[in-house]
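Table S2 (text version). Query chain:
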Amino acid sequence: MCRWAAYTGTPIFLENVISRPGHSLIDQSIEAEECKTTTNADGFGVAWYDARTEPGLYRDVHPAWSDPNLRSVARQVKSGMFLAHVRASTGSATSRNNCHPFAVGRWSFMHNGQVGGFESFRKHADMLIPDDLYKYRKGATDSEVMFLLALGAGLETDPVAAMQSAIGQLEALSRKHGVKPHMRVSAAFSDGETLYAIRYSSDHITPSVYYRFSETHGGWAVVSEPLEHDEEGWEALPPGNILVLNKAGAQQFSFAP
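Corresponding structure-token output:
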């Protein structure tokens, strides 16, 4: 299982999430506390928004803690919207194309969880991707398929419904061809203006998602695990919900594929 963190608000240096906190994302890559896999060493990635519509993207296959370039980038780059991820593979190869976040146009997406038995029906899943989007299928993960299915289902016009459709299609395939647990999702995605976070599962075990507004930074952090030990103000996103963060504030809606 992976760990991830996202931020939206007043621009801050990426290091304020990725490397500086006491339980930063890099620390979680070494010693995560709320997932089966303590170590998340199968690559990392960051997508950030600044002057251009499309996000910048930096991904590599090294463990996040061992890449000095990641710390250097995090010290220098400032952004008001970014997504960062450390990966623990659930079956697909350790390669740059399998590292999150994924990006197409102005959209970026990252995921922690699993689609039960995905390797046994990966061909069926790939065939659901619309022809005009299949050129963006670079890797072999269930997460990338989820993202491309959402784009095909209307992510540009109705992001919540599109993601419900994508997750519902993959869960249906898992129920038909795969194994339990059929679906576990904690995911974040953005178009550069709004940050969305999902917490959903087909069983009673749902990957963790927390969120908090920082008066110090003037923005929202959404994370797999709180960035500081014993820090007040972190709220758990309830299972079966989607969090929507933008200039209008924070809203929660029920999420059912």
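Notes on Table S2: The mean pLDDT is 96. The CA atoms of residues 161 and 181 lie 23 Å apart.
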